[in-house]
Amino acid sequence: MQARYTGQVTAAEWRWVTTGATILALFILLPMILLPVRLTDPSRAFMGALHAPDGAAQVLSIVRIGQDNGWLWRALHTGEAQSGIFADPLYIVVGQLARITGLDGITLFHIARALAALFMFHALYVLGAAIWTRLTIRRVFWSIASVGAGFGWLIPSGAADTVGSGLYPFQAALLNVHLPLAIACLAFLSAAILDALAPDNTTKPSVINSGLTLIVFSIVLALIYPQALGPVTVTFGALLAVDGVRRSRLRRNALWYLWMVTPALPILAYNLILTTSYPLISMLWELRGRDTVPAVGPLLIGIGLPGLIALPGMWRGLRRFEPDGSAYMLVWLAAMVVMAFTLPFVYGGFLTGLMIPVAYFAARATEDVWFPRLQNRRWRYRVVAVILPLIAASHAAVMLAPLELAQRRVTLPADYLRAFQLVRGTGRQVVLAAPQVSVWLPVWAGQQVVSAGPALTLNAGRKAEAVAAFFTADDPGDCQPVLRGAGSAAGRYQVGIVLVGPYERAIGQSTVCLDPLAFLAKYGDVEVYRVPATP
Known about the structure:
The chain is mainly α.
């Protein structure tokens, strides 16, 4: 079956999709709803996010910048001096909206996450409608793309679908705002690309056809998650070139490609200039881009049952290789995998949206192979009723597992929260605290910290040693290195505030380094000190 661009969705279909998307969005928020049941200790405060706390703390710190009326991005989880650059506008805008509306930034982040999920699920259905006219197959594609995952529930050790990943749309919406929006952009771009590649489409791009879709969503994707733009851009260019040579329409195809690539080029060029001209920015973005790529075995396990269902569709796609259907999905899938495993720096970002081509071939195999073997409609519904929970089972584990560890991983003693409010009002500072505390301090206080762990901090190992030396010092000479930027990856910085609470005392009980500091306040077990300015 060769793909045809249809794009027509009836009102009844929209009601069905909206209902399904709303239910999934509520499931995405379910862990936050259940959280008060798990957090029963009133002496500890929830810090703001359950899933992938390091990554969540990173984006929430950017929300805090916007909430404090800032417009320039800085990496608050590392101490190096930064003047700020234009980056991550999505989270800056969320923070600015929180400031304007008076809503809490963390609350607005989770609202935005749910809205992004709703948008993503609708975008996936739009893509299905752009490919198939049959309502049943549209729904099969949407269901597998939205909730499909692998055998992680059966073989949990190291499986790609048990760690929370942008490979899977449902899990992406558990993590942040930009990943579901990126997947939505990929879905809309794919629908427009399939239209451009259709054999019976001889039109040139314009603002009244899919050309406008290419412009809008390539710009949005370049702004929020440019890594995901790489594979789809390579795929579109390769297929347009082959089609242009084969059918002697290189000029027309070049126009389509330019309509997708040109709008995003200024943004990509800006990013390239920053990373090549400013070593600190390059190191910070490399640190942010270290999404791990699962090994081949865990990746295959993570594709699991949807991948097995898709095999006949992939085989037929290889044999027929229709340019506007199977060719695009096969080349896109191959580009994702090859770029993720061979190109440095971006790593797992290239695999974002992997379930879209897998779901495409699964839906195609369902239409061409599996449903014809199940002539009885009742048996079809029974099989679907069994398969859907199986392909979604891993999501349940990823969704609910953090609740078991919430008391330890995403809370701090409430006294720290009161100290954060004081630190927030001390002007721009670099704050010295234990790494566990430093993960969340930028989220609440909007200040830079010395060390928040290897996932967030440059030269985290050396800085952690300097922090430990400060709290275990026997000699006053051991105090100054960390206060004056020991372990800095670029230049020097001066620590202005020191927090001392349960986590810091767990590192060391020494007060040698505290004696020269100016005591500011005490909140329960947490003390706040100011470091005197050095001449």
